[in-house]
Structures are given as structure tokens and as C-alpha cells.
Amino acid sequence: MKDEGGASSASAAGSASATPSPLTPLPSPLSVVIAGLGGQGVLKASDILADAAFLSGYDVKKSEIHGMSQRGGSVASDVRFGGQVHSPMIPSGEADLLVVLAEDQVENNRPRLRE
Fold this sequence. Notes:
The protein is of the alpha+beta class. The protein contains 3 helices and 4 strands, in the order H-E-H-E-E-E-H. Helices cover 23% and strands 25% of the residues.
């Protein structure tokens, strides 16, 4: 039997695979903040990290914070992944890792890091 796209039912059903088991179970979700300026690829970097974590079998949540809506404005993205993630937002002082693409964003985002 063929679907509207011409693929057989067996191949269409086979392509919807289940999420794999995580490669390494995490005791708690890993919280990563990626920060930079508009046009530097902050959102692309967070998409890549989120996709990689998902394909590795983790539950993933992601949020974006846009500063000025123009090239060069502050942009940050929160990515959380692990066994079970309830919220995409990373509270101040709770980030495990800070990835900064613009030097001037280091001090702006340092308070977001866990002590």
C-alpha cells in the first residue's frame, strides 16, 4: 500500500523510529547557555546541540532569548538535556556550561553559571 507521497506503508512506518536510549545516563539534566551577538550563529549552535542530544537519546528542551531584534544585538539560547527535563529555562546560577561567541558576553552571562 502506498501513501500520498508514494512510499509504501512498511517503509513509511519504519522511518518513524523510536528515540534511542541515552548513550550515558545523566544524574540530572545538563544545562548549557550559548550566548553571543545576532548573526554569529548562536541559534544555529543551540539547534545543533539540541539535535545531537536528542539523537543520543536524551530528553531535550530549548529556549531562546533575543535582545535587540537586529544583527549585532545580544542573543542567548538555553539548552537542557538529560533523562527527564521539565523546563527549557535555566535559572540564574544554574547553568553547567557557558558557551560564548562574543567576548563582551562573558561578563553579561557569568551570573548564569553554577558556582
